[in-house]
Amino acid sequence: MRSPTTILSSTTLFLTFLSQAGTSSATAARAVCVHQRGVEFSELAACGDKGSLQYCFRNSPDYVSWSLLEQCFEKAGCTLEEARIEASFVVKLCDERISEAELRRRGPELLAVARQTTTDADTTTDADTTTTEATDATTTDATTTTDATTTDATTTDATTTDATTTDATTTDATTDTTTTAASTDTATTDTSTTDTTATTGTTTSSTSSLTCSTDSTYTTSSCPTQSTGTASGSTLSCFETAITTSVCASDMVCSDETAVCIQREDSVTGGTLFCVILLAVIFFGGLVVLFGLCCRDRRLDKRLRAQKEAAAIAKASAVSSSVPAVAAAAATTRPQRPVRSVSANSNRSGDPFVDGSGRKTPQ
């Protein structure tokens, strides 16, 4: 038979374990919330550089504490008061969602455990009461002594419960302190890893067979400026931020800023070789046909010139041969004057100044 002290101690230890597990899971869930909603929180922040906040949220460790969030806002350019307000705002937004999820997830389990513990305690109490009544039914003093003993035991159990609760609280505080220190160390490690990655650069691509572009990530240095407070306008410490750009995939040929792409074929295939040979034959065949047409035109031109020259020569020969015949024909057809003969008795002679007697007339 278990005593009430043993039952209460077991229940207290179980509840303490549940509280520690709940705190650890809530801190881890808060880290997930900060990682997923980092861009949203940086946009909602009333102070600080947006890029610095996004970098801090993105590179936060697996356990995000309140102080770590305050450091993020202080490094981004917020004052101490502003950092506390913004950190509390982020914690409130994340913890409200976490608390609702924890209630939905842990509610039935806690109720089942509580019911089982209550049933065990009731059964033990009933057994103790029956035994006490059966043993001390005849003596009132014994019953009084038993009641006093039970009261002392109950007081002792209450004292033990308080001490256990105090120890659990101390353990929780120690756990929170250790978690904060570990979070700071982890943040430093993550930052170093990020710097190494930033130096080398990374390129990621999708597994799709027709991916036009790949996401190329490279880092650059960003130096935010204080936006509020008395130090407004001063330059804060620089930090490395990752920038993602889209570039054409190595196995693609892209156009219109990687919107349209075709598959690149660097190896010569049978179809490619056939197309090249066909295009070469068409090209050289066209050149041969063009050269043949030019030669034919030149031959035709020479032939036409020769014909023209022959016609001109024939015409000239015909003209030159027809001129004497025309002259002879003209001479033949010309009318002739009658010829007078000089008689002996005629006084006329060939000389007009000689008379018929042969003497010349004086002039």
UniProtKB/TrEMBL annotation:
Residues 223-233 have a biased composition (Polar residues). Keywords: Membrane, Signal, Transmembrane, Transmembrane helix. The chain crosses the membrane at residues 271-295. Residues 117-139, 166-222 have a biased composition (Low complexity). It comes from the Eukaryota. Coiled coil: none annotated. Residues 114-139, 166-233, 329-363 are annotated as: Disordered. The keyword Transmembrane applies. Residues 1-26 form the signal peptide. This is Uncharacterized protein. It comes from Eutypa lata (strain UCR-EL1). The lineage of its organism: Eukaryota, Fungi, Dikarya, Ascomycota, Pezizomycotina.
